[in-house]
Amino acid sequence: MKSTEERADISLLSTALKAIRMDRRMRSSEVARALGMPLRSYEHFESGRGRITFDRLVRFAEVTNSDPFAIIAVLALKSPEFALRCADNKLMTILMIAMSELNETLGDDITFLEPGTLIGAFTRVTKDLSDHIAKRDLFAETWMKEHSSKVQGARPLDTRRLGRRTAD
């Protein structure tokens, strides 16, 4: 019998896997075929009733062109949305590659990195990434407002709504 925590983890992974598959507009049968699994076995895997292993998650990520480390991070972050958010940019895979390089460069000297130094470094990185997105959005809004008058009859666009469907 699985504990409440195990069932919650399975539910998180299941939600993430299904969200990625659906975002990729893939049918269960397509993913099952690509994984070399019978459809029923894949359905059990995606629903969390089948065996979820690291190897299967990596193979799923390859088939769906998503980020296997972001799928695993869903468990720590308690956010199935995180796996979908990282599917295209491969944020967690990039982070793991960077950590691998740090491990190769420092080796045993990693033990000399103090928690305060690590917290400061990662806090700066997350702030820089957040600032990058804010500046990108501000740049697009400002540019559209300044240049929309060049198109006859155009009204300034609300770029925050670009890409979102609106009810007609």
Q: CATH topology of the largest domain, what is it called?
A: 434 Repressor (Amino-terminal Domain)
Number of helices: 8
Question: What percent strand?
Answer: under 5%
CATH superfamily of the largest domain: lambda repressor-like DNA-binding domains
User: What is the global morphology?
Assistant: flat
Radius of gyration: 21 Å
Helix content: 55-70%
- Residue-averaged pLDDT, rounded? 90
Major sheet attributes = none
Q: What is the CATH class of the largest domain?
A: Mainly Alpha
Please state the second-level CATH architecture of the largest domain. Orthogonal Bundle
What structural class do helix, strand and pairing data support? mainly alpha
First-residue to last-residue Cα separation: 50 Å
Order of helices and strands: HHHHHHHH
Spans of 5+ residues with little confidence (pLDDT < 50)?
none
Pfam family, one: HTH_3
GO molecular function: DNA binding
Protein name: Transcriptional regulator with XRE-family HTH domain
Organism: Sphingomonas kyeonggiensis
